[in-house]
Fold this sequence. Notes:
By secondary structure, this protein is mostly helical. The chain has helices at residues 3-13, 16-37, 41-57, 61-72, 82-97, 101-117, 121-135, 141-157, 161-177, 182-198, 202-216, 223-238, 242-257, 262-282, 286-300, 306-322.
Amino acid sequence: EYYLADLVAFVADAKQPALDRVKQIRALLRQGDERHEKGDYTQALSSYEQAVVLAELIGDICHAEHARYGLARIYIPSIETPKRQRLRETLVRETERHNHKVLYARSLLAWGNALMAAQLLTKGLEVSVIAYQTAWPLGDFDTVVNGLRFSGRAYSDIGDYESAIARNFQSVQIISEHQVSPLRSCQAYIRIAEIFYLAVKPQLALDYQLEALEYCKRTGNPALPITAKSWIGKYYTLTGQPQQAEIMFRESMVELEGYNDKLGRTLQRTELSILLGDAYLQQVRAKEAANAYKTALGLVTGSKHRRYLAMAHQGLATAFLRQGLY
């Protein structure tokens, strides 16, 4: 791992004007990281973009990589372009070539996330496995947990729930044994709950989602408790507790109104509308379900988020069938 050595060498040889730039760059990186943690992704992208420009002006390879990683790890379907995918691929090659192993492992996951969003599951799984295997000997347990989470996601997407559950149980065990951030803990518990849901084990899904909520509340990102409560509502519905589900959905809707990031809020509203539609179908309220799915489609039609589009179209078709409209 040569990142720190390379950074120290650059700073040691730099003149005062370059050192002043480094201070600006580090301030922008901190700002970007803080905005990212709060879920303010639009503003985080702005901070990282400014940091990249300044770092490249003075030939600061380390901070330029750090800033590009900030850009690469944010995946929002509505802003995705081939250029952003090339950014991720280039960053993986550069961090590997420079032997910056921590950033290499994290950059692999940024790339893997985009690959899986594009349904390139085999490649996404391969990249995720390399990432957590690289991060383990470095003691970067946040990245280990994230890599296991992503590989579990790939297995669940191809229908191998047994392997998906095994990967996610590994991540939960690591959380219990090592220091892992609330963010990664929140995401890991949400993932294992989702896999139990896909494996048609709603009570286990509910149990793990309730644990996820406690971690999500500690992240500082208001979107995560909203997401957790939305899924808790769904699992309450599936376990025959519609009143508890309604409470969770109402809380999610209220909290969503105070969420500042426009792009993030759109995706949250889309997901919540789909979950509401699913819950209404469970309660044999087909007309209300159809309205919820229509709301979701109105939010994502024309976007590149295939998963939400497919879920909303499928739900709407089911709601229409139950009303005898097809």
